[in-house]
Design a protein that fits this description.
The complex is a heterotrimer of chains A (about 325), B (about 210) and C (about 190).
Chain A: H1 2-7, H2 35-57, H3 59-82, H4 93-103, H5 111-123, H6 139-150, E1 158-159, H7 162-168, E2 174-175, H8 178-185, H9 191-196, H10 208-220, H11 227-246, H12 254-259, H13 263-270, H14 281-301, H15 308-325
Antiparallel strand pairs in A: 1-2
Helix pairs in contact in A: 2-3, 2-4, 2-10, 3-4, 3-5, 4-5, 4-6, 5-6, 6-15, 10-13, 11-13, 11-14, 14-15
Chain B: H1 5-13, H2 21-25, H3 29-34, H4 39-63, H5 72-94, H6 96-102, H7 113-121, H8 128-157, E1 160-161, E2 164-165, H9 180-203
Antiparallel strand pairs in B: 1-2
Helix pairs in contact in B: 1-8, 4-5, 4-7, 4-8, 5-6, 5-7
Chain C: H1 2-48, E1 54-60, E2 67-73, E3 79-89, E4 94-101, E5 108-115, H2 129-132, E6 145-147, E7 157-159, H3 165-185, H4 188-192
Parallel strand pairs in C: 6-7
Antiparallel strand pairs in C: 1-2, 2-3, 3-4, 4-5
């Protein structure tokens, strides 16, 4: 359906103010929205998170983002060229995959590995399914999961933010993420550090506030449905709170859950992926509540410290099913069967 | 059932491409996916399966006229189970490391549908020599397929082939390739490749 | 009627012949398989008790819970330590470790991971010498501990593998459990005499 938008012969003039885009009714294109426009807004929304990662991790962050984005664009171009499909490299969607993937990587991650993950994300995660709009899984997360299985050591080697170590006058220091500290050593990180991002972790996951700014911008432009990010974070907080109330000394508080790790990035930029989230309201509720539940369960009881990635990927797999079984009835349909 | 040379060659050759078990028939998935994380494991599994296949085809072909059709499957399963147990014991006695690496997948040859498939689909209808050729062809095709899978996964997963380091220190192994997920990736690519090649072959006007 | 007789006959003969062949093969293979097992055990014991040239087996307990220790003996017939197997859960599947204990019952003489199904490249690094060697000379009192990211500070500590805390922890836990069981069931005096 996306291709249709692009081929649409008469695009209305750009001056017309954006009103509202109802994401849940994707087949209708009543407004002058198209993929490039939405995608460029998403890139804009990712700027604060990118800026934060560059501030905390300096040159490595710039390098990783450039490598990932360039590989994603090149892979998309090559794939479409070989398959003799229209080239849609500049619609911004591949660039977003690259940025999101880079933001989920540890700052010390090697460039060649980031390139491999990006190529996998676009080739296997997106183009093999038929390109934009047809992929089942969020390509960036799929690339990240592939890297996780391919380079388990590199993807779990973290360092303190350079902004922090520079003061102490030392180079990169290996460190554990707040989630790993919580899981393996029972140590908590202060909410303030989590909020502003002065912690070890993936490049874009460290600063909750930078992601929040971008997310709110997207919400302001009406490109994302509030149900998805807030529902996901709310579900994590809710299930986190249940365990916290059962045993506050063992389990972290709900605020920790939504501030630490990939929760913010996942909730605002991955759960809200238009292609891989359900279109019906009921489906969306099921999607985010189950997703948040899974993330908390994996964090507290799984082998890994972080569960956001797998929770979203798992729920992605259910999207076709959710769309099918939660479709609202047409007016006048059914009831008497 | 003309028993001339051409026919025998054909019975042998079909296992190598036309009826290549894992990639064309999508048969025998369990060992193809489970034990191919190195060339040596793939070849060992392929040879063990080929041995069972050959023995089962010979036995089934020999007794095909005296086995009543009502109990043929039961009889074949007993025969196949015999050879599988022999293969299992042989590996455990002579090659303990390989036996350990293949683990429960050697006894599982019993349920490999290639073997019962060849017994039921070929050996029970054909005399001894074609049955032998059939088993040799399919067995060789299967062994080569597993070796290919194992080779691809070993070079990416360990940076080596047959335990000989080919890629230097600079290569950071792709752990995923020796995990089950890697088996599915490689398998998917190889099936896609065989489909692509066979389509191209069919499209070529002078193809035989 | 005739048909049924034939069916029964064919199946019985096939079964009997197969059984006969199998018995022969087993007769030939079983001693070799037992020999392989014994060799593997002996090699593992000699790795964890490096001075040992021979060993004797001690067993205790009933069929339900049997505890086995191997007394390592050097060339002069002197006791060099005892070895036993620590078996327990890991990150995925079981981890089986051969553990060597010194005769003073204070230090480990070495460990060897026999079986494990940990994640390749991560958890399965517990079978690398760099990890196993940390246990040589490690004190077992009060119990074996692990720490992360730093070099061990106390004589009863090892450094966990970065990124594989769960596997490292499982090894330490299994060793502690096995040591405790052996200390309880095989008091030092009993071994020394």
């Amino acid at each position: 359906m996306e291709e249709k938008t692009q081929d649409k012969p008469q695009e209305k003039p750009q001056e017309k103010p954006v009103e509202k885009l109802i994401v849940s009714s994707s087949p209708h294109f009543l407004r002058d929205e198209n993929i490039p426009k939405i995608m460029h807004a998403v890139v804009l929304a990712l700027l604060p998170a990118m800026a934060a990662s560059v501030y905390f991790f300096r040159f490595r962050a710039i390098g990783l983002i450039i490598v990932s984005v360039a590989t994603c664009l090149a892979t998309e171009y090559a794939f479409q060229k070989i398959r003799k499909k229209p080239i849609t490299v500049w619609d911004g969607s591949a660039a977003i995959t690259g940025i999101l993937l880079a933001l989920t990587l540890p700052p010390s991650f090697p460039y060649y590995a980031a390139a491999l993950g990006s190529a996998f994300a676009i080739a296997i995660g997106k183009q093999l399914f038929g390109g934009i709009g047809y992929n089942i899984f969020n390509p960036a997360l799929l690339g990240r999961a592939f890297l996780m299985a391919t380079y388990p050591v590199l993807t779990t080697t973290w360092s303190e933010p350079l902004a922090k170590t520079a003061k102490a006058g030392v180079d990169a220091v290996s460190a554990a993420t707040p989630l790993a500290l919580m899981k393996f050593e029972g140590k908590m990180t202060s909410h303030m550090d989590l909020f502003f991002g002065n912690i070890a972790g993936s490049m874009g996951e460290t600063s909750a506030i930078a992601i929040l700014i971008g997310g709110l911008y997207l919400r302001y432009r009406s490109y994302i449905n509030w149900k998805l990010p807030l529902g996901y974070l709310g579900s994590m907080a809710f299930f986190g709170a249940i365990f916290y109330l059962i045993n506050p000394s063992k389990y972290p508080d709900p605020l920790f859950h939504i501030l630490a790790g990939g929760a913010m990035l996942g909730a605002w930029f991955m759960v809200t992926d238009m292609v891989t989230s359900p279109v019906t309201p009921l489906g969306q509720w099921i999607f985010v509540i189950c997703g948040g539940f899974l993330a908390v369960i994996i964090r507290l009881f799984g082998g890994l410290p972080e569960g956001v990635m797998y929770s979203i990927l798992l729920m992605n797999a259910f999207v076709p099913l959710l769309n099918k079984h939660t479709r609202p009835k047409f007016f006048g349909e059914g009831g008497q069967a | 059932m003309a028993n001339n040379n051409y026919n025998l060659w054909h019975e042998f050759k079909k296992g190598l491409w036309q009826e290549l078990p894992p990639f064309r028939l999508i048969l025998g998935m369990c060992p193809t996916l489970a034990v191919t994380n190195s060339v040596i494991n793939g070849v060992a599994m392929g040879l063990a399966t080929s041995f069972v296949l050959l023995s089962a085809n010979i036995s089934v072909s020999l007794i095909r006229k005296i086995v009543p059709s009502q109990v043929r499957i039961a009889t074949y399963v007993v025969v196949i189970a015999l050879y599988v147990t022999v293969a299992d014991l042989f590996l455990a006695a002579m090659f303990p490391p390989i036996s350990k690496a293949l683990g429960p997948y050697v006894p599982l040859i019993v349920v490999n549908c290639i073997i019962l498939g060849r017994a039921e689909g070929f050996a029970q209808k054909n005399p001894l020599t074609p049955s032998i050729m059939d088993a040799l062809g399919i067995g060789l095709g299967f062994t080569l397929s597993l070796a290919l899978m194992g080779g691809i996964r070993e070079i990416f997963g360990f940076g080596s082939i047959l335990d000989i380091k080919l890629l230097g220190e600079w290569f950071e192994p792709w752990i995923v390739m020796i995990l089950p997920a890697g088996a599915f990736f490689v398998f998917g690519f190889l099936v896609a490749l065989t489909n692509y090649l066979s389509k191209r072959k069919a499209a070529a006007p002078s193809g035989h | 009627m005739n048909k049924i007789v034939k069916m029964v006959l064919v199946l019985s003969i096939t079964g009997a012949v197969s059984g006969g062949i199998l018995a022969q093969v087993f007769h030939f293979a079983d001693p070799l398989i037992q020999e392989n097992r014994k060799k593997e055990l002996r090699e593992a014991i000699f790795v964890v008790l490096s001075e040992a040239k021979d060993y004797t087996t001690l067993e205790k307990g009933n069929d339900k819970e049997k505890i086995v220790v191997y007394k390592g003996i050097d060339a002069d017939g002197k006791l060099v330590g005892i070895a036993f197997i620590a078996d327990g859960g890991g990150f995925q599947g079981n981890i089986r470790i051969m553990v060597g204990l010194s005769t003073d019952y204070l230090k480990l003489k070495g460990i060897k991971v026999l079986e494990q199904n940990e994640t390749p490249g991560l958890g399965n690094r517990i079978k690398e010498p760099a990890f196993e060697d940390q246990f040589r000379g490690l004190e077992i009192k009060p119990k074996v501990e692990y720490i992360k990211y730093r070099k061990p500070e106390k004589p009863n500590q090892i450094q966990a593998i970065t990124g594989a805390t769960i596997s490292s922890e499982a090894v330490v836990k299994n060793i502690n459990n096995a040591v405790e069981r052996v200390l309880k069931n095989f008091p030092q005096e009993e071994i020394l005499k």
